[in-house]
Amino acid sequence: MGAKLLTLFWVWLTLGQSLYVSRGVVSASITTPLPDLYEASVIELQTGLTSGQFTSVDLIKAYFARIEEVNLQGPMLRAVIETNPSALQEAAALDYERLTSGPRSALHGIPVLVKDNIATVAFEGMNTTAGSYSLLNSVVPNDAGVVKRLRKAGAIILGKANLSEWAHFRGNIASGWSGRGGQCTNAYYPNADPCGSSAGSGVSASIGLAAVTLGTETDGSITCPANQNNVVGIKTTVGLTSRAGVIPISEHQDTVGPLARSVTDAAIVLSIIAGPDPNDNFTLAQPIPVPDYTMALSNTSLVGKRIGVPRAVFLNDSMTGNDPYVNQVFEQALETLKTLGATIVDPADLPSAYEIYESNNETVVLDVDFKVQLNAWFDSLVANPSGVASLEDLIMFDSNNPTLEEPTGYTDQSILIESQATTGFNASYYQSLAFDMELGATRGIDAALKMYALDALVLPAPGYTTVPAAIAGYPIVTVPLGFYPDNVTIGSAGPETVYPAPGVPIGLSFLGTAWSEYSLVSFAYAYEQKTQTRLQRKAYAAAIPTTQLADVIGK
Ligand SMILES: *[C@@H]1O[C@H](CO)[C@@H](O)[C@H](O)[C@H]1NC(C)=O
Ligand SMILES: *[C@@H]1O[C@H](CO)[C@@H](O)[C@H](O)[C@H]1NC(C)=O
Ligand SMILES: *[C@@H]1O[C@H](CO)[C@@H](O)[C@H](O)[C@H]1NC(C)=O
Ligand SMILES: *[C@@H]1O[C@H](CO)[C@@H](O)[C@H](O)[C@H]1NC(C)=O
Ligand SMILES: *[C@@H]1O[C@H](CO)[C@@H](O)[C@H](O)[C@H]1NC(C)=O
Ligand SMILES: *[C@@H]1O[C@H](CO)[C@@H](O)[C@H](O)[C@H]1NC(C)=O
Ligand SMILES: *[C@@H]1O[C@H](CO)[C@@H](O)[C@H](O)[C@H]1NC(C)=O
Ligand SMILES: CC(=O)N[C@H]1CO[C@H](CO)[C@@H](O)[C@@H]1O
């Protein structure tokens, strides 16, 4: 989609023009073929909806059929845990509203899949369980703050995405596995690790099981699945997007953000879900107004910018555990950034790099926060038929229901047990919290940005990259970087999953200070547009759903 149409589209939306005018704007596209749902962008879908080429009802039917094809049949990707039984009805209402009063936003009538730790009201027909049977049929008091914003913008919640159970805060368990959802796998190589914890969101975005998806990240859970599934992920500054109604790990690190097939789609979603929410007071600290992140989409954004490479620890394979191929493709990305006009400052080490690597402060904080906040989550429920009302109950529930929650290879509960052993907020906790900010921000990301006068940092997404941003609460934008070569040595990632593996994607991460999403999005866009990496390799044949809009229109 060209810049001109993008601009036109936004001018039209901003002015809130009538249907008559909107038809005029897109009339040229009526002869365009139906978008291929494997790759379709939000703008292409919105254009087709506006021109009457297809409806949101058609879109829901097509995405449901695509999910059916690959989720529990064929390659059995187990990316989706539930579909929304009210989605068709909601789509029909939004189609009618479009006709009578026009679209509410760029996401009007667009199907969005959300991770299963993000609450949706029970009467709509879906569970909110973080993948755990302990929350099956539980009744949440309300939609999550981000879901309220999506609905207000006219988006349709298509379903819930599988995830690493409890957002991977349970024990030493393979990424992408949950009791309810089973083992989610990557669409780029049979049984490859999807990475997590937003595994189902990443996999679903990668092959067009939804238009766009939401994930959450505490440390790596958006950027790693973005990285490993050839999609774009935005891990936001803590406090940019509301965590109200999100099954928690820690208020100091949890974030909600988009996983999408392009920086443009991710920017559209972020512009809608960001913003203050009285139910999450961390969001009251963000700068107002929320930027329109689509205004950051420029091909010249890297011209004259200084981008730092924090090599110590983060590019040392023996510390990150990365396959050497990761650094090889990363070095090529640095050359690309130079051709885009950036000055690469290399190295630009974090003064705290080795201390971050040694530090256990993050675990101290998360263990204490999780117990307090998860217990508060159970307290907040209107009902929970399993009877589980606390972390202590949860550990017993898992042990008492081994076929559901502790099948062979997925038995570990060590993190739950470690968290249960904590005794609340004491001096050690506050000291670790302060060290996290110091190591991640003051003597970490902010120190490097300041010492070398940088606009951002850049690193390969896999490895240790997520940690400084996680403990500082700072943002990361991840874009496709490359794919493991066909002769890569296949490794094991869990009882049912492999990694690395031939053709499995690798991502590039841009990191910055608090609230720097706008510039990180702009840098990621210029890189994405120059390289077009996502389009260089597709999922394996059986993992590509065949249903398209043409199969459902008028049926
Ligand atoms: C950026 O460049 C690509 C072609 O490489 C083009 O398709 C796109 O429209 C450009 N974006 C903007 C915002 O000008
Ligand atoms: C939750 O899942 C169960 C089992 O799949 C289903 O019966 C129920 O309708 C779902 N929805 C809610 C809101 O509990
Ligand atoms: C949010 O509110 C709690 C009390 O309800 C307070 O302890 C905390 O400091 C507040 N946090 C922020 C970031 O304002
Ligand atoms: C990489 O890490 C290893 C293990 O900590 C260390 O021995 C080696 O010196 C490091 N390499 C560099 C270039 O810093
Ligand atoms: C926290 O970080 C500080 C500074 O690096 C370090 O001295 C301390 O040992 C760390 N604490 C834990 C629990 O790892
Ligand atoms: C704080 O509590 C933890 C357990 O949660 C304990 O290991 C630690 O020793 C306590 N620290 C202090 C200073 O009491
Ligand atoms: C894979 O092939 C490339 C050339 O295509 C070669 O440079 C590389 O060493 C090979 N790697 C392995 C692990 O065999
Ligand atoms: C637990 C689970 O995975 N359930 C759902 C998975 O997705 C399919 C759609 O393919 C649903 O029908 C299942 O109920």
From TrEMBL:
Residues 1-16 form the signal peptide. Residues 58-520 form the Amidase domain. The keyword Signal applies. Transmembrane segments: none annotated. Keywords: Signal. PANTHER family: AMIDASE, OS04G0183300 PROTEIN. This is Amidase domain-containing protein. It comes from Suillus luteus UH-Slu-Lm8-n1. The lineage of its organism: Eukaryota, Fungi, Dikarya, Basidiomycota, Agaricomycotina.
